[in-house]
From TrEMBL:
PANTHER family: NUCLEAR PORE COMPLEX PROTEIN NUP88, NUCLEOPORIN NUP84-RELATED. GO terms for cellular component: nuclear pore. One of its GO terms (molecular function) is structural constituent of nuclear pore. Pfam families: Nup88. It comes from the Eukaryota. Residues 733-760 form a coiled coil. This is Nuclear pore complex protein Nup88. One of its GO terms (biological process) is ribosomal small subunit export from nucleus. The keyword DNA-binding does not apply. Its main location: nucleus. Keywords: Coiled coil, mRNA transport, Nuclear pore complex, Nucleus, Protein transport, Translocation, Transport. The keyword Nucleus applies. It is found in: Nucleus, Nuclear pore complex.
Length: 762
């Protein structure tokens, strides 16, 4: 899988040279830290780029920032590109880089309480403020100090920091010496990230708050039907022996319960109020016999609501062994429709999809609070009933815990099948992948069918068919017990780096305290079909890969199917005490050779043959297409010639058509003129002509009168001009001048006013 920050990918090879790794190995060599457990643990946790490791020898948590390694490698690349050094100076440069890697500091986080008991797992909450540590007899929560300075180190970068520690459930553990802690995890419904869920060996699921760590917030007995919380220890032992005790749990997405209308006391049965809705978190608990129980947990202030326990959930299709009797872990993937992964000690993984239950099988949620008057709980529940779901097993994958090698000699001693608990961990980079850690190594499992199955269950179409089977992709990443004769070397920690700059990376800590750091997705590329590039038809085909589609599958996908590997060669890291004989090493070599031959050479030969066949077919099609192109070119020349002749004929036809139109118009006009009866249009025109003629006569008379008047006025003007001109007296002339001056001044003022108005309006 291509990481987002490929420029920092070399930090993976530098982690084992980090000072924190050398410190862990030094503690192991000195004998101060000895891991005698034969089962896998979770002693590391990663949040973003922060790596936390539990050091049992000093009883503290070691912390380092992985981005410091990335920055060291980046500086080395810059120096190598900018400087051209000699072999001697290049060796000095590499030596300096090693020292710089060693000088990357780490911090020790000491709890206030000294932990003498063994810690089996650590985890950090979402906000990164608390770290949870638990073992079979201890639960501690460390409050992380403030961070500042370079790389946001704790307390500015102190080597040793003392952290406030919170004890959880000590009173419960001291009351019973036989009580064991099976699993502890952070409650996802806690808004303050201060609640933890605890599963104990007495079949109880408890939720504790850090603020009130000795008294559980809620306690549920994981048992079908009614059960008492005060069961005897002997009954618990018998239940554990029979596999009736829950061994692991995981949370699903929350659901909201709608309240019912409740009748108020004293109202005569006429009044009532509706209970406010509540958000609950389904908790899937798997028993040792493989049965799955469903518990509903809530963190609301209404503590008196006792939610029922559902199960054992029915699993389809039914199996003779009920899908195993040695279940050890359960995982719920973060998908719209819950997908459960159940692992067994034999290395089997059952991939189940939750189906909605019917209303007939629903469980009623009853109020468990006794009133102050000592009345019994109401018979009707406060909330709407929850139908009990069922599980449909999509597939069952079998992990190869120890490598199966060919038997060289029939008289060779055969070993019993190896069994160990398999721990499951989600992948924060993609919802359709998870990882498995156990006493013999690490496996990575991808579910290519997840998107299509989710769409099938989310669709409203009743006629839709269930998608066809598509096997999961199991990748054997790390093998610490290659053969049955090798000593058990459990994985001490497994987690996933989700930082975009560092890239999606799987980090595993083996029993020899060495890290195996690998990029995720070596064989299986996780893609989002809705965001995949390509044409619309290709994207539509990708969204429904299992349905009947007439669209032809691309040849690239066919090659990918041919080259898809069903088994892989893991990284062999047996323990330091492993002493393999020459015969065992030859068996491992034969196994690796056979896998390489089957998974690589044979499939590549098959793909090569398909490519040759495809090439020959394409060459034949190319020849036919070239012949078709040549014939089309010849046809194009003929078509051009015929088009030229047709265009000439078309022009001639246009000319003939225009001449015919002119002749037709002349014929029609002649025919129209020879008609003895006037048409309506001609009569209208005749009327208009008569009106025009009468108007012309009238105009002629008017013009004649105007001319006569003009001649008469001319004669009068000549007669007046020939006489004496009138004369004005001096006083009359002065008066006329004054009047003209006044009118001129008035006209000037009017002009100015008009000018001002124009300026104002403009």
């Amino acid at each position: 899988m291509a990481a987002a920050g490929d420029e920092f990918h070399d930090w993976r090879s530098l982690l084992n040279n980090h000072s924190i790794s050398k410190y862990l190995r030094k503690q192991s060599e000195s004998g101060a830290s000895r891991h005698q457990s034969k089962e896998a643990k979770s002693l590391i946790c990663i949040q973003s780029s922060d790596l936390f490791i539990w050091c049992a020898s000093e009883g503290c948590i070691l912390h380092c920032n992985l981005k410091a390694l990335a920055s060291v490698e980046e500086n080395q690349n810059v120096q190598r590109e900018s400087e051209s050094v000699s072999p001697r100076s290049r060796s000095n440069l590499f030596g300096a880089s090693d020292s710089s890697v060693q000088s990357c500091s780490f911090q020790k986080l000491f709890p206030v309480d000294v932990l003498s008991l063994e810690v089996e797992s650590i985890s950090i909450n979402k906000s990164g403020s608390y770290i949870l540590l638990y073992g079979s007899r201890v639960i501690r929560i460390l409050e992380l100090p403030r961070r500042w300075g370079k790389n946001a180190a704790f307390e500015g970068g102190k080597d040793a920091v003392t952290c406030k520690t919170v004890r959880v459930g000590d009173r419960m553990l001291t009351r019973s010496q036989s009580l064991r802690i099976l699993q502890v995890s952070w409650h996802p419904g806690s808004k303050t990230n201060l609640h933890v869920a605890v599963l104990t060996s007495n079949n109880r699921f408890c939720v504790y708050s850090i603020l009130e760590s000795e008294h559980p917030f809620s306690t549920v007995l994981i048992n079908a039907g009614d059960g008492s919380l005060d069961a005897s220890p002997s009954k618990n032992f018998v239940g554990a022996a029979l596999g009736d005790v829950a061994v692991a749990f995981d949370f699903s997405a929350p659901i909201t319960l709608q309240g019912r209308q409740r009748v108020l006391t004293g109202s005569g049965g006429h009044g009532g109020r509706t209970v406010s809705p509540i958000q609950v978190w389904p908790v899937y608990c798997v028993r040792g016999n493989g049965a799955v129980m469903l518990v509903y947990s809530h963190l609301s202030s209404i503590r008196h609501v006792n939610l029922p326990v559902q199960g054992p959930l029915l699993m389809y299709p039914p199996a003779d062994d009920n899908y195993g009797v040695d279940a050890c872990s359960i995982l719920c993937l973060p998908t719209p429709v819950p997908v459960l992964i159940i692992s067994t000690c034999e290395g089997r993984l059952h991939h189940c999809v939750q189906l909605p239950g019917s209303d007939q099988d629903s469980s009623l949620l009853n109020d468990s609070v006794n009133s102050q008057c000592g009345e019994r709980p109401a018979s009707l529940g406060l909330y709407e009933p929850i139908p009990e779901p069922t599980l449909y097993v999509i597939e069952t994958a079998v992990l190869e815990l120890c490598l199966s090698v060919p038997q060289i000699d029939d008289s060779q001693e055969t070993y019993d099948e190896f069994m160990c608990p398999v721990l499951l961990r989600k992948d924060g980079n993609s919802p359709d992948r998870f990882h498995c850690s156990h006493a013999a190594g690490v496996h990575s499992v991808a579910l290519p069918w997840l998107d299509s199955v989710q769409q099938y269950f989310l669709e409203d179409n009743e006629d839709a068919a269930l998608p066809e089977e598509r096997e999961c992709v199991v990748e054997h990443v790390l093998c610490t017990k290659p053969l049955y004769s090798c000593p058990t070397s459990p994985v001490l920690g497994l987690d996933v780096v989700t930082d975009l700059q560092l890239g999606a990376t799987l980090v595993a800590l083996s029993s020899d305290l060495e890290f195996t750091v690998l990029p995720i997705g070596l064989q299986y590329q996780v893609t989002n079909p809705s965001k995949s590039a390509g044409s619309a038809s290709n994207s539509a085909e990708t969204l429904t890969p299992f349905r009947q589609n007439t669209t032809r599958e691309p040849f690239k996908k066919q090659l990918e199917q041919f080259l898809q590997k069903k088994s892989s060669i893991p990284i062999l890291k047996p323990g330091a005490n492993a002493d393999l004989s020459q015969q065992e090493m030859f068996q491992l070599l034969s196994r690796v050779t056979s896998v390489l031959r089957e998974e690589y050479i044979h499939k590549q030969d098959h793909a090569r043959q398909e490519l040759h066949t495809r090439i020959s077919m394409l060459q034949q099609r190319k020849e036919h297409q070239l012949q078709d192109i040549q014939s089309l070119l010849d046809s194009r020349g003929l078509l051009r010639e015929s088009a030229t002749a047709i265009s000439e004929k078309l022009e001639k036809c246009k000319e003939d058509h225009e001449s015919l139109l002119r002749r037709l118009e002349s014929c029609l006009s002649k025919v129209q003129r020879r008609i003895p009866v006037l048409s309506e249009a001609e009569r209208q025109e005749m009327k208009e002509l008569n009106v025009i003629k009468s108007n012309i006569d009238l105009y002629k008379q008017n013009i004649h009168q105007v001319r006569v008047k003009q001649e008469y006025q001319g004669r009068q003007i000549q007669r007046v001009g020939s006489g004496n001109s009138p004369s004005l007296h001096e006083r009359q002339r002065s008066q006329i001048q004054e009047i003209l001056k006044e009118e001129g001044s008035d006209i000037e003022e009017l002009k100015n006013a008009v000018t001002r108005l124009n300026l104002t309006l403009s």
